[in-house]
Amino acid sequence: GAKARGDKQYQFFEPSMELTAYNDLVVETQLREALARDEFELYYQPQIEPRHGRLVSAEALLRWRHPVRGLLTPESFIAVAERHPLMVPLSQWVLRRAALQAQDWHRRGVAQARIAVNLSQVQFRLEGFADTVRAVLSEVGVPGEWLQLELTERMLMDDVAGAVETLQQLRALGLTIAVDDFGTGHTALAHLTQLPLDKLKIDQSFIAGLPQENGARAVTRAIVQMAQGLGLRVGAEGVRRREQWSLLQDWGCDELQGELVAPPLSVTQFEAWCRQREGG
Ligand code: C2E
Ligand code: MG
Ligand code: MG
Ligand code: MG
């Protein structure tokens, strides 16, 4: 009502907004230097099958080891980076780093899992994006099957025809495609049947509502069933509790990711996690 509208207007004129452009500039400069100084790292979070715990893939999650502020998660810098051309080299670094990691883990027998890479909006919409992926794969020497790409609904819906074409090119290279944070965006359900996809990842907000919230239960079950009907795999992220695991398993969810399985891990931690599971 009127109060809500009033609040919004007040927020709109919040003084901190005037600082945004300035802050962007500062962050951009720092990001550029960070890239040059090699301060970025990828952490990896396992995605497992609920029944046997088999490792299916590891999601690569960007971290910035800031010399002063410590290890930073993407929320503190990715939004700014997305607004700048700098996101292109940063995204390119992520893709190449993930391919190198897949190569290393396969070669050393650490894990046969895929690595899932989060794409940025600017990166996905670049002319010839699939060609740059092909170039990275051949330079590093890995088959496309070793990588999965995670896109948001928004990236797909902005230009459906363009997305279909790019995704077809990527899948022809062997890559698989997952829709991240599924259920929070604006995917017209009709498009789900046209888009060349492999997997839906149910957004954490729904998983957080399990088992107690009726709405979260209904939406989660519906997404699982819809994915099955469409012949797609379906994953859940943000799994924190045993009840969530068993419900998702009962409903037929293919993959689980979350603190209950493992938090995002450094390369060293991830390798230790794999060894420990083999042992026990
Ligand atoms: P996302 O792709 O949806 O990744 C899942 C996020 O949820 C990760 O946060 C992960 O650490 C967190 N998460 C997973 N399970 C749990 C859990 O059980 N509990 C809690 N508290 N958190 C959990 P993170 O690493 O901070 O990444 C946030 C977002 O930043 C990602 O969301 C993704 O959209 C973006 N991002 C991360 N890495 C990259 C990247 O390399 N490139 C691009 N473009 N975006 C990235
Ligand atoms: Mg993701
Ligand atoms: Mg997500
Ligand atoms: Mg997200």
UniProtKB/TrEMBL annotation:
Residues 24-278 form the EAL domain. This is EAL domain-containing protein. It comes from Inhella proteolytica. The chain holds residues 412 to 691 of 691 of the full protein.
